[in-house]
Batch of 2 targets.
Target 1
Amino acid sequence: MRPVQLADIEMAARVLMGVAPAARDAVMRDMIIQAQTADAYRRFHGKPHPRFGSGAVLSCAARQDPVPRPAALGLDALAAYAIVIQTLLADASYQSS
């Protein structure tokens, strides 16, 4: 998976905001698996994965159904951001120091 940037976190959270709270952890884990798969494909083939994109979380999330950017971050939006960050922290092996 490509190194995470702020845009990755925002787009993933916007996808989660459109998903039932009970399903958010699984959806986020799936996005990370897709990003890892896409990055391996990109490194091997020299081009983006046809379904999952470039290997960035942003690329996977943008192919799903993100909600529009909220004007303000309410509790639901903050909960979605928290899931994104907690999931990324749980497996930081992709991130360089």
Note: The mean pLDDT is 94.
Target 2
Amino acid sequence: MAIFIYLFFIFINLFLSFKDYIHPFNKNSRRALWGIVIFSFIIIYLFLSGYRNYSGLSGDLYNLQTEYEYYLRTGNSIYEGGYKIFMGVGKAFTLEFYTWRAIIIFFALLLNFYSIIRYAKNPHLVIALFFIFLIIPSAEQLRNFLAFSFFQVGMSQLIYSTKSNKYKNFIFSLFVLIAGYVHSSFYIYIVILLIDKITLKYIKILAWFVLLFCVVIFLNNNNIPGFSIIINYFENSRVSDYLNQNIRFGFLLYMFLHGLSLYILYVTMSLTQKLQIKDLKIDKVFTTNLLLIIFFPLLMVNGTFIRIFRNILLLNYFSFGEFLSLRYFHSKKLIFVLMIVSSCVMWVYLTYFFANTPYALYFPFFLDNIYFR
């Protein structure tokens, strides 16, 4: 049942992403059929809040539950202050873990749908692509999903808002700080402010230097020169656990996934630049993805840093929706959608089947859901 519902909402949203070409849906001038959007929100919420994992092969959900219950007893936690504030709400109302988690998921999902409804030119495409891949890590990694939701609101404001640059930079910085206060890894996204300060030419040069530096790191047995000083500074902390590892060849897998996003964005940008449409933001999204290459060396330390690049995927989906909504390139759009859907499937396969066993996260996502048994 879970798989049927999952596939149905992917297909119905993909179908409606072409609504401008389909009678009678093309008579609706609005960007989306809101009934389907609302139903999609409900189904995504049920998938996320009903998710359990009885496999014993993944520790994220279990660790979150253990830490939450410890916080209820003691008021202490190893997690960031922002996340502790949310746990404090659960403590104040003595909520058990899964009830509290369901409330947090509802709030975080509202933030994501706010950005989709407010800024996505093709919400159905964005929702379909979210269903294919992002829904799965969002179910397992609550703390990251909550922080990601704040980040997504700030990021969509930065790229798509028509307000002044000063205002957009302030709002983005504010939401990045909030996201970082929930999950400290999100502080790094403050570098995205550079996309308006540095030309694309210099960002490309910087990206090439980073790639060359990655070669040096690889020749140094995946040890970043001078990185031991940072590791020693964070000794005996969770940060040290992340940094004091290497995955030898595994980083190539994660670099490939981000490279795939860059390639699709580059093709999209190359096609649309000839049109000189002022409101298009595809070039900014491409520049943002290109700038994130500066974090490639972290992938050579620990594969969990793929989250840095995964967290930008929803914004990429906005850009894909921009292209699909153009009154041009009609003959290319079906091939384009097949390409981006294939890229999402590639993220699923390489993340949950190739790099890990599907019994750890992928199968439990469908089989252990309390609402779709």
Note: The chain has one domain: 2-367.
